[in-house]
Design goal:
alpha/beta; 35% helix; binds guanosine-5'-triphosphate; binds magnesium ion
């Protein structure tokens, strides 16, 4: 990634980021590319932007088809529940069977390849929460290069909160997994935690720029980061830097190019002969890098393990709220990221709530006495009960 684009290119990218309409975005990306000098240092960036443009073009095409009443697949699925999980796999691995067996979705299961042609959502219950599981149309080699609906499936994966990589234990599961991960990597979606992570949350104009370094900057100073962001007109945002980040990685985040998605592997068809041996091969291949759940959608073996694996891998916690005037806490928890504070909870309940926050009372097993009066920065854990008091 180059750290030396001309000023007009950087300005143009600021316009791309601000554009909400796909047509306008596409046009601005085209203009952006015309300002980028073509050499080795910018080749990766150009390829990435062109891929984003290809996805936009398809989106526009689909929109037109739908307006014309000709239907066509709908690739965007509104998020629901604790998190949206995209189910990715080659054809016939049993993605629809999983939705049929573990969720409320109505799907078509068939031995014919490429049966599912548009994403199908279903809710998978886990204790007192639900995950939204979305079957993505099958991946194939070449998906990232635009084969069939590959780019849309990958865009769906990029938008999801987590991934389920599904393989068939009747076939060579290692080859399938490496094909899926290969296509993901080509569109710069990572399933293993990168050493550094940079999140840019854009804010309304006038909000100002806040940079929070949780980890450490590598080979650059805080001021370098600030200047780079400003040169791209990222002036109203909260930028969080985790791990050991270089200036290149900050620039990557500006282009929204590298995304990390927590993932679990679901190895299906454990009921068939030879599946156990294939599972051993898969375990050796993965080497503990990602959790593997061996299941059978046919016999329903171990399907109940999926919810817990997702909950753990996505680093989630459940927090129960209580009205000051009421005796009982709500049975429906708020689902937050591990490491969230009372302030994050207040914000997710209502933006007003965080502004008028006075103090909270927390009931938790780990506290010596409950409830305890706490401030906004109090770190929450799974199972905590919180009562928020406003000014
Ligand atoms: N033995 C066995 N067969 C299974 C299992 N799960 C799915 N199948 C079979 O595998 C075939 C494909 O299943 P689907 O659920 O349609 O697969 P898919 O991944 O959704 O496939 P496409 O949408 O076409 O890409 C069907 O014939 C299923 O009956 C399982 O756990 N065990
Ligand atoms: Mg299917």
């Amino acid at each position: 990634m180059p750290a030396n684009l001309p000023a007009e290119a950087k300005r143009k990218w600021a316009e791309v980021s601000a554009a909400r309409n796909p047509r306008e975005k596409l046009q601005l990306m085209q203009e952006f590319l015309s300002f980028v000098p073509k050499h080795k240092g910018t080749a990766k960036l150009c390829a990435q932007v062109k891929k984003q443009m290809a996805v936009l073009r398809r989106e526009i095409e689909e929109g037109k088809r739908r307006k014309a009443g000709r239907g066509g697949p709908k690739f965007f699925i509104e998020k629901e529940g604790a998190a949206q999980i995209a189910v990715l796999g080659l054809t016939n691995v049993g993605k629809s069977s999983l939705l049929a067996a573990a969720t409320n979705a109505k799907v078509e299961v068939s031995p014919a390849p490429y049966t599912t042609k548009e994403p199908v959502p279903g809710m998978l219950p886990y204790e007192d929460i639900q995950f939204q599981i979305v079957e993505a149309p099958a991946l194939m080699k070449g998906a990232a290069d635009g084969k069939a609906w590959g780019l849309q499936t990958l865009a769906l994966a990029r938008n999801a909160d987590g991934l389920m990589l599904m393989v068939d234990l009747m076939q060579n599961p290692c080859g399938q997994l490496s094909a899926i991960i290969g296509e993901l990597e080509k569109t710069r979606i990572l399933v293993s935690k990168p050493k550094a992570r940079v999140e840019i949350e854009r804010k309304f104009i006038g909000a100002g720029l806040r940079i929070i370094v949780f980890g450490r900057l590598f080979g650059c100073t805080f001021k370098d980061v600030e200047e780079l962001l400003k040169s791209y007109r990222v002036t109203d945002a909260i930028v969080k830097i985790y791990g050991e980040a270089t200036l290149d990685e900050v620039e990557d985040a500006i282009f929204e190019s590298t995304a990390y998605k927590p993932a679990i592997i679901v190895a299906n068809k454990i009921d068939v002969d030879g599946a156990e041996a294939n599972l051993k091969l898969l375990e050796a291949y993965v080497g503990g890098q990602l959790p593997i759940i061996a299941v059978s959608c046919k016999t329903r073996q171990s399907l109940e393990k999926i919810g817990e694996a997702l909950f753990k891998t996505l680093d989630l916690i459940r927090v129960y709220t209580k009205e000051p005037s009421e005796k009982d806490f709500s049975k429906k928890p708020f689902v937050l990221k591990k490491g969230s504070t009372v302030y994050d909870l207040a914000k997710s309940i209502h933006s007003d709530f965080s502004e008028n926050f006075a103090y909270a009372r927390v009931w938790a097993k780990r506290l010596v006495f409950s409830p305890q009066k706490v401030g906004a920065t109090f770190p929450l854990e799974d199972g905590d009960i919180v009562e928020i008091h406003t000014k």
